[in-house]
Amino acid sequence: MSKSNTKIRKCLFPAAGYGTRFLPATKAIPKEMLPVLTKPLLQYGVEEAITADIETMAIVTGRGKRAIEDHFDISYELEHQIKGTSKEHYLTEIRKVITNCTFSYTRQIEMKGLGHAILSGETLIGDEPFAVILADDLCDNEGESVLLQMTKLYEKYKCSIVAVEEIPMDETNKYGVIAGDPLEESVLRVTNMVEKPDPKDAPSNLAIIGRYILTPDIFDIIRDTKPGKGGEIQITDALLTQANEGRVIAYKFEGTRFDCGSVDGFVEATNYFYGKSKS
Ligand code: UTP
């Protein structure tokens, strides 16, 4: 069976960034462990991957690794303490995640950018197509999750996929921005992509958000990708190589995304999920 026919079985979570916008909170705790209500961002991401029928979670960590590993592990002391008490239900959600998934970890030794973080995950992914979730982009949808929408699309197109959304033109310098030709409703074949362009240089207002499906040849491409914007190895630059061969599609997903890497987005997400929990 050709590798591209493989079902998406693994999800990679780059979680090694410094999270400087959330200092001092992120001094000893990874940004991905900050909670929206009571749940860490990374757990929302893992639960989204589960909705797409993915059970193998591959996490790229840097500093603060222990908090992530401990979160996705049994705490025997805690279990013992609250078993049979009225508080036991507080553990239900995380128990479900731990029971249904396997977690593996690797470290990105130097923070050389998202492309480099993804390459660091090669050892956990191997030679098969995989999903990527940036947990600081928190997505919610009443119907199918954003990642499930994308894995379904992968079955049709069998190539790399980036999730995109329309942004105000004056924010293009915060995102990877694409240009593409329409293929079907909400789907474009990517013809160009630029990392954090000035609005005047942006090829459109379609920004890449933190959900990707990548084919495994991306690892070799990243290895050959020179540092780009900000001196970092950018996944956008690596994907452009695939896009030049017509092998990347952009998908305008259904759902809401919160940029929880920024304080404003984080507060918005908190208000949104609080409202939802009360309705
Ligand atoms: P960001 O661009 O949000 O960077 O990374 P950051 O370091 O996390 O946050 P700020 O800008 O300093 O506040 C986007 C995603 O890529 C991961 C981050 O963990 C985050 O999920 N990342 C980024 C890495 O894993 N390694 C890197 O070298 C860079």
Automatic annotation (TrEMBL):
Keywords: Nucleotidyltransferase, Transferase. GO terms for molecular function: UTP:glucose-1-phosphate uridylyltransferase activity. Signal peptide: none annotated. Its EC number is 2.7.7.9. Residues 15-271 form the Nucleotidyl transferase domain. May play a role in stationary phase survival. This is UTP--glucose-1-phosphate uridylyltransferase. It comes from Candidatus Sulfurimonas marisnigri. The gene is galU.
